[in-house]
Amino acid sequence: MKLALVSHRAFEEMHVPEVTRPWMEAFENPSRIKLTREYLKNSGLLENPDLELFECKPATREDILRVHSPYLLDVVSELSGLGYGEVGSSSFVVKDTFNAACLSAGGAILAVQQVREGEAETAFALIRPPGHHAGIGHSEGMCYFNNCAVAVRWLQEKEKVKRVLILDLDAHACDGTSQIFYSDPTVFCLSFHEYGMETIERGWLEEIGSGEGKGYNINVPLPLGTWGKTYLWAFEQIFPEIIRDYKPEFLVVSFGFDTHYSDPVGNMNLQAEDYAQLTRIILQLAKEVCKGKTTFILEGGYSLLALPLSIAAVISTILGTETKYYDKIPQPEKIPKIVKNVTEEIQNLKKQYL
Ligand SMILES: [Zn+2]
After folding, report:
1. Domain regions of the chain by residue span
2. Which residues are catalytic?
3. How far is the CA of 119 from the centre of ligand 1 (A)?
4. Do the Cβ atoms of 60 and 110 come closer than 8 Å?
5. Contact, 146 vs 67, CB < 8 A?
6. Whole-structure pTM over 0.85, yes or no?
């Protein structure tokens, strides 16, 4: 099997935002998964013989506590019991939020498990709510438990995986994931994200990890409005070298599609074809460095027009099939000076700390 697609029908019903647009929180809703699944079905990808669909089960208390504080787990659980509340900035709770968050983390675990045990070459966790803003003791930004971190700690404890590279391609910095692994050299955190909004306080170049983890956290801040060509250029300057140097046993890609130009939350200018190209590069490098062991975990992506198409681009690239891109727009060729400066700065940091 080439691809294990891990999801659950419950994601299409659970954890419904109690606010309406234009509240940002309203964008993380069941339609994201429902429309994506329909699009994958209608485009014939779900019938591909190299794809198998798996239904996940909730992560256990023990799984969540490998990453998060018991207090956070209890607060999310208790507020869900009450049916309302906010556990962190932009992290509202409704009656089934706790169950949805556990199911989402369970999906990430099942996805890495399929790849680790050799059942699938690659896995994609089609899950929600997302996870990468959730830190050890806090929920934030529509994330409750850090799905990716829960899956990585599961790999380390249950499967004795020693080194994992987390590649975060959401529009926003993976501040929660970085915090969790900040002083841990066994997990390398590499994040490409938009930068330039006053409200964004984390994801700086200088945040390189601490203690034994110094040098194992790399942020690639890119200007708002960065186009796919520029993003891919920066990606190719940085990712291949880091994965080859670090030599992880396993690669986990926290893939957010809020970098799409039509996304209402993110501020970048990527399109579906760019996601396909990123996937090609990732798979090729993973094959070279870690026997292809790669799991993709869904983070953000809130344009209901773009998200299904973007995920289809990744999945069809994994399967090696053609797909149509309905979102093609022309983009400039020139790489901005500021992006060249960022990549140079990262090369300097690498020389200094790696
Ligand atoms: Zn995001």
Report:
1. 3-353
2. 133
3. 30
4. no
5. yes
6. yes
